[in-house]
Amino acid sequence: MDFIDQTRMVRALFAFIALLLACVLTAFSWDNYQARPRVCGFSGQSGYYTNQGKKRSFIANEASAEDDGTGIYEVVAKMKRTLKFDVPIMIYISKGEGNCYATTSPDNTRMLVADKDFLINTNNTTGTKWAAISVLAHELGHHVAGFDRHPTQAGDELDADYWSGYILNKLGASKTASTKCVLRYGGENDTDTHPNKLTRAEIVQTGWDDAHNNTINYEHCDNCKPEGN
């Protein structure tokens, strides 16, 4: 092998290494981009939804899109009418999740996943029927506000808490009843995904007050401000 052939081989080797490095860096960047899935659970517990590489998978123990008489479909429909939020949302009734979730599918279908036993338990532990309704209002609030509006999920949770308080006032809940669930199930300290329960309760009360005064803070949503306002 002469000197020219050796030079060509070295150049080819360096070109291959550069291409390989570019592929690795591209894959690394994509993984970082996918690290925050569009899923928001009320209590911050894991479940139902996960990322497996680039593939999204549902891990609900049991879920159905059929109305099973729980009243969840009717409650969510009434909330949407109250807000005049005419956007299709698939509702799934699940079991064994110990939580409720707002998310979107890979084809951007909006979904609300509700564990009916968890909702029943929230009412029992807080002593008010408004607890379960506040959870559903919070998850609907994620769809109203929009996902990924803030650098962290914690900001998205506060948007949903605002809409929860707003909806509960319009449905007839007292301010005290509106915060009972978040004070019972929220955490004492801030986490990567959820603010502490006192901060959340304060935002719920702000939403409740705005509804009481017939005002809306449109900073808690994307593209939801009516034209002319």
Describe the protein in words.
The radius of gyration is 23 Å and the shape is globular. It folds into 2 domains: 1-33; 37-220, no CATH class. Mean pLDDT is 77; it is low at 12-37 and 42-59. It is 51% helix and 14% strand. The chain is α+β, with helices and mostly antiparallel strands and 229 residues long. It has 7 helices and 7 strands, in the order αββββαβββααααα. The protein has a 5-stranded mixed β-sheet with strand order 1-6-7-5-4. Strands 2-3 form a two-stranded antiparallel ribbon. It has helices spanning 3-33, 72-83, 116-126, 130-145, 153-171, 175-185, 197-212, and strands spanning 39-41, 49-52, 55-58, 62-64, 90-95, 100-104, 110-115. Helix 3 (116-126) packs across helix 6, helix 4 (130-145) crosses helix 5 (153-171) and helix 6 (175-185) packs antiparallel against helix 7 (197-212).
